Amino acid sequence: MNHRNLRTAMRVGMLPAGIAIALAPAFASAQEAAAPQATTLDRIEVTGSRIRQASLETAQPVISLSRADIQKQGFTSVADIVQNISTAGSPAISRADALASGEEVGGQYVDLRNLGPQRTLVLLDGKRMGISSGGYSDLASIPTSVVERIEVLTDGASAIYGSDAIAGVINIITRKNFDGAEAGAYIGQYDQGDGEKQVYNFLLGSTGDRSSVMLGVEYTKEEPVFAKDREFTASPNGRYHPVPTLNANGTVTAHGWSASSQWGTLIDADGNRWTVDRDGDPRNFADYHPTDGLNDYANANQQMFLQTGIERRSIFANGSYDLTDNIRFKSDVLYTDREALQQIAGYPYQSAAYETMLSGDSYYNPLGEDVDFIRRTWEMPRQTRSELTTYRFSGGFEGSFDFADRPWDWDVGYVYNQNKGVKTSTGNLFIPNVANAVGPSFLDTDGVVKCGTNTPNGVIEGCVPWNPLAPLGSNAPGNLNDQALLAYLFLPSHDTSETTTKIYSANLSGVLTELPAGDLSMAVGVEHRKEEASYEPDALNQSGLSTDLAGAPTRGGYSLDEIYLEFNVPILADVPFAKELSFDVAGRYSDYDTFGDTINSKFGLKWKPIDDLLVRGTYATGFRAPTVADLYGGTGQTFDSFTAPCDSSFGLAIHNASVAARCAADGVPANFRQQASGGVAATGPGSQSNYAFESGSNPELMPETSKTYTLGVVYSPGWVEGLDISLDWWKIRIDDVIAAESVTSILNQCYVLDIASACDRFDRGTAGARSVNQVTEVTRTLINGGYQETAGYDIGVAYRLPETAFGQFRIDWKSTYVDYLEYKRDSEAQTPVEQRTGWVTGDWGGNFRIRSNMNLDWSKGDFGASWTARYYSGMKEPCTYNEECNLPDFVSSYTQVSPTRSVGSNTFHDMQVRYNTPWNATVSVGANNVFDHEGPVMYSQPNSNFAYYGGFDIGRFYYLKYQQRF
After folding, report:
1. Which of 121, 123, 165, 125 is nearest to 44 (CA)?
2. Among 231, 301, 565, 716, whose CB has the most other CB atoms within 10 angstroms?
3. Report field, pTM of the whole predicted structure over 0.85
4. Are 317 and 309 contacting, i.e. CB atoms less than 8 angstroms apart?
């Protein structure tokens, strides 16, 4: 199908609209103050519709957080605020994801309905935010001080806004017509004395008869928190298994402690492991002992950040000027500079993985023969500093006019958004230099150990010899306390990224005619959008000569043209059993230069049988176009966490004879143990691989498609003033899901489901190799396959009690109940559906059946207080330890017999007390997680790299907030 002529016609057709601004009608921007003319004073645009209207009640459910609601919370970023609504899923990249990598790290994203942040569309004043190459929008780039309110549309909206609006839309609406000045400060920290958070902002605005301008500046700094400073993250497997233990049969269970200890381990020709005594001489083999898993392993958590550090600087300005009584120019500018710091333990270097044995001719070799070694470079923790700078400009013209005594609104506009990132990594070793440093070396006549041989021209200039067997803190020659050695072995890398979004749009909305039941309204518009992205790993990483994960460049883009049409049709009004009955119908045609075109539609019903009751419902189709990273992303490496079904400790082979037989037929012995990071046996399901697996993009991807259904009621009884009760049922199904299969899924397809083709997608180590029978390579690319489907209920109760002598009380309670969340990974008939509701594993994150927030607010005069309870229902995870396996006979259709562990629900309480001073200031004092509640240990590490859910509070947090108005 050829769509090039249509695209050309659309572009040509947009030119007159851009030139004849006064004649090109379009809709006024979301939530903007009304123009002077009477036709638009009472008409606004609500999130989820392009038609300006007087009523705020719509067919689609919208959650609105006012500025007052935001100020009563102890959270400082837009992302944190939205993350705490009940419809939000697990954090996409939580600050406890210490091992997360890529250009998105350091940003904060919101995942509605647990369908992925790339399926939630983020708007700023009704216009798209910029995205990363993977489709993520960073909500924290918007300074909270300039936000007037946040509207969350919990409904599919591709017909209105285009791609990505599958799970919903977050519309951040900024303050307009601000006159005066404000300054604010926020200071807080955990009661453990860490994680200090500082926010300072200043707002200045002026509004005149024809113009308005506002400038906001905000600075945020959040200090990191070390995992070692919390009991539940101080050890890899949490508080119940803090150290390795000796079993009755003489074996040792490491409980997640790494065999790549900071003491240095020598592996002799027979595969035996030897560790130098703490006070021993690493050059004297007599000072070595057989490696003891009880004392010689390393606790990597002692060097890891539990919570990353973040620093942000933001400037936001908006303004408008009335050129005439009917035409206005308006614009806004955003600049944000964000810097995030991650730290994990020094690299667990294994010479066998990089073919860099300690030479028998090395001065530091105690055996005089080539030997392998393992050494965690504890002296040089790995750090990643992710810097991202956002530049955004939005500008255009808007206006209003009357045609046949009916109001019309129009606008034409342009949006430019650019994100430029630099990721600087330290703590990874340059393999060629390691090979030199552990190669032949000798003690020269000047008393200095040198690389190479004691022959003419045998010295390797610039090389610094390394003794990888020297214990941590040792003064022995060649230890990692030598700054020259550190500089030689550890070379920094600098990855760069850039994404650009450009949008041209023209819109028109107004009243076509008056029907007996009201105005027949419409909106129409066209849009041209272009997305470009690049991600350039450092040449060092591209070469594969570093211990950092190898990656290839990402570079590409796409463009599209769209046209939409929306009608609001009143059917009945002020008749028995129909105080109001209306339909909202919308459609959008999208034409991409990558996959072609798509049409999406939406139908909404609003019916008020009586004044007190609103019945609403919608049906919508939607889509998500493949992102630049999906289509053109370079091949990259990851150390995946996975579960081997053939493992003799926790794999399905020990419970299922068919699985055991398939493993045996593939040459896997009955006593096989999955190898985890550090070359040791995995301690449980979801252990991180000891080998890097590769995955890549797919330029042939097609868009995901979706169908969304909602049906709900809103009851506002006239006999109870101030009470509103809502109940909405929703269902979302996504087909042709763009996803990379997990390693666990591929192995399960082969050994559990007996799908022969899956067995060809991975390789095992060959006989005689150190990796014998281990999964060393897996073939993965992105595919369109399978589906995701979820359904549930949103419940809301808001009650403003009558004012009494004791003050004004308000209750706001919102809950989300997830009936089911299903995921089918591919289109293979044999692959069963995964039921994710209430389940958690390493690659699923946390999927709560119920999330509920209740806020109680009190105010009297200048004083006020609020109390919030945040509830999360319990979850299940695969068993890791028999003594904690409280559902040993649980059966799942996906995993068949699956011993399961269930953990209980969790509730976190927040409070705030505020006072409006006589000098026009507000002072607030509060605490998040007042009772210092800790979530349960979860060995599957949901949304985290610790045995703890990454979305839970990590301690009691106190804060003081001061806002001065001038």
Report:
1. 125
2. 301
3. yes
4. no
